[in-house]
């Protein structure tokens, strides 16, 4: 399915984050404090953009379980980022991000794009 134009920048960010997750999973003992700080700086804005974009459409989607998961995963990821960068924390963050991105890309985005305004499509 072709991605709605509004979602494409978010999907590109997801792609870059998944690449980082793969690097962490391949070398879990190697910490990357610069990437940790970049995620700490960038993810709150990314999450806020998603939350603002989807807020008007949750009722139409009628998937309270997805909304709850979406919100809980955002909070959990931000909690992980609030801690110090260590191999264990970095691995936990990579696992949480990978699961969250897969959920958004495979389930949430395809469902939500049906409600996004078509003038941007």
TrEMBL record:
InterPro entries: Hemerythrin-like (IPR012312)
Pfam families: Hemerythrin (PF01814)
Protein name, as recorded: Hemerythrin domain-containing protein
Source organism of the structure: Conchiformibius steedae
Lineage, broadest ranks: Bacteria, Pseudomonadati, Pseudomonadota, Betaproteobacteria, Neisseriales
